[in-house]
Fold this sequence. Notes:
The protein has 396 residues and is of the alpha/beta class.
Amino acid sequence: MREYKSRGQVSAAIILGMGALSLAAGGARPGAAQAGKTPLLEAGPQIKTSSPRLIQPSGPTPEWAPSITPQMQTVIEELMSFEAPPIPQLSAFQARNTPSPADAVKSLLMKTGMQSMPSRVDMAHRVLPVGPKEGVLVRTYTPLMRSNGPLPVVVYYHGGGWVIADLNTYEPSARALAEKSGAIVVSVAYRQAPEHPFPAAHNDSFAAYRWVTENAAQLGGDPARVAVAGESAGGNLAVAVALMARDRRVRIPVHILSIYPIADGDTESPSYRQYANAMPLNRAMMAWFFEKYASSAGQRRNPLISLVRAELRGLPPTTLLNAEIDPLRSDGEELAERLRSASVPVLQRTYPGVTHEFFGMAAVLAEAEQAQDLSAERLRDAFSSATVAGRRQERR
Length: 396
């Protein structure tokens, strides 16, 4: 097993930026390079403050998001200024090289002159001897301020429709969870489509989770306190891995944190219709992702893709977070209802005025900080309950 480590300062843009899905309405690119291009699309929002959360948008409220917050709109405007081609018009390789909301946040932070911040985690990499013959690469984030003894562990899955994005794109989320929950976060680089279609990402994700439950001590972790977490496609993977663990008689996670998950292979929900043209995620993009990863109707109906079709009984307590302005909002809200019907303790919260990918944007969005704090609280509570349960078991 190979391991690589790094420590030290990380720029605020990397620590606090975030997101993964590039600009991508299925139609013509907003402000495509034409003679009459507006100043907004040339430069994004006008920066007149050194505080990222006080940046104001330059343009009118978009028609597809009348309730969008000013700070969320500034991120969208900055993303629009990059003039990326719509993802549905690109190959997977091309899409992976277009700018993302993480880049938009990073750009805004640079324009405000925000200074770098010291890292509060130790970052390392290792290749787990599981899954494909080359193994599965993971990145670990270990809190620098730690007590004696093993730490709880969160196995984290990034988003990107199982096609785009990577560990770097979602680093701010993984890092924030480690810093705020006090847990070791293991971020998994699963294989992506179309090179590796369904169920490759799911199999890699489960293999990494199983390795962590059996080898947590190698990371300084406690195998009895392992949770799963993820965003978007990764939110799907977090729930799916818990299902796979239950069905394969592997220790199930103590908690599931699923943030705006893909939970249904159908794109006809109320939020898909309401936010068909939203940014940074829209209906055309989701159709493109499904085509690349789960191309057949049968695959999209598979319970590991359409979680709302799965037998959910026996899953651990779950936290589901959604954004109001998101085609996937209905997926998360319906999944919460299905979990409740299956007697699974669940907390579901929809954050108003923000879009898909907001969770890691704490530098510019108060809602992101609130969501991160809630997530960390829920994880800490789950780890504490697992500790109490373990002590009771020892007394028997």
